[in-house]
Amino acid sequence: MRFASDGVVLGKDAKLVAVRGIEIGTGSNIHGGSLIAACALGCLKGSGTNPDGKVKLGQQCVIHHGAVVASYGGDISIGNNVSVNPYTVIYGHGGLVIGENTRIAAHCVIVPSNHNYQDAGVLIADQGLSTKGISIGSDCWIAAGVKILDGVHIGNGCVIGAGSVVTKDIPEWSVAVGAPAKVIKDRKS
Ligand SMILES: CC(C)(COP(=O)(O)OP(=O)(O)OC[C@H]1O[C@@H](n2cnc3c(N)ncnc32)[C@H](O)[C@@H]1OP(=O)(O)O)[C@@H](O)C(=O)NCCC(=O)NCCS
Questions:
Q1: Tens of pLDDT, residues 87-99
Q2: What is the reported pTM?
Q3: Is the dihedral of CA 28, 58, 130, 160 positive or negative?
Q4: Is 148 left (phi over 0), alpha (psi -120 to 50) or beta?
Q5: For residue 101, what are the CA distances in angstroms to 58, 131, 139, 144?
Q6: Which end of the chain is more exposed for a tag (fewer CB within 10 A), N or C?
Q7: How far is the CA of 148 from the centre of ligand 1 (A)?
């Protein structure tokens, strides 16, 4: 693993897979029971697995128990001082960028890909994926149970309400709620 420097706390049973594709900044805390993989979950052969994509965590990040961060062939870039709470799942397929100081609550799912399903005569599992990428700005609060779909860009300073499904871009400083998520407030007004 390419730590930025010493001072990263790894919980006793935190699992790191394909460590050559993982970079973790100083002061970050990877809690026991979490998983960080620079590959797909189907390739969990262990720390020496060849990376397929990258996972880069900034400084002072916290990955809580039960959270999963897996690159799936794309690059995940998480800024400084970001927390990812228990049982949140973050994948990297088409690329994922999360700005600094952002809070991601428990049980969120952020996956930058979709299964192709257009041909009803072929198994969905055999039709491959489309990938666009997701970005989440700095100083955002993604509340409990939020789902963020591929292609979505969430601006700086946004609050996404609990249980929301974000299907379209959210402008900066917005409070957005619901499924599909709609803007209900502008934090600057
Ligand atoms: C998004 C949130 C912060 C908004 O709080 P707020 O600014 O005080 O907003 P309000 O309570 O005034 O709600 C405004 C409207 O949005 C609706 N609303 C609020 N949160 C909603 C949500 N998550 N989903 C759907 N609708 C929501 C309210 O019912 C209200 O509708 P109305 O005007 O028709 O009555 C809050 O509702 C929320 O979801 N908090 C997340 C809590 C959480 O996940 N905590 C753990 C993680 S750390």
A1: 999 999 999 999 9
A2: 0.95
A3: positive
A4: beta
A5: 10, 26, 5, 17
A6: C
A7: 17
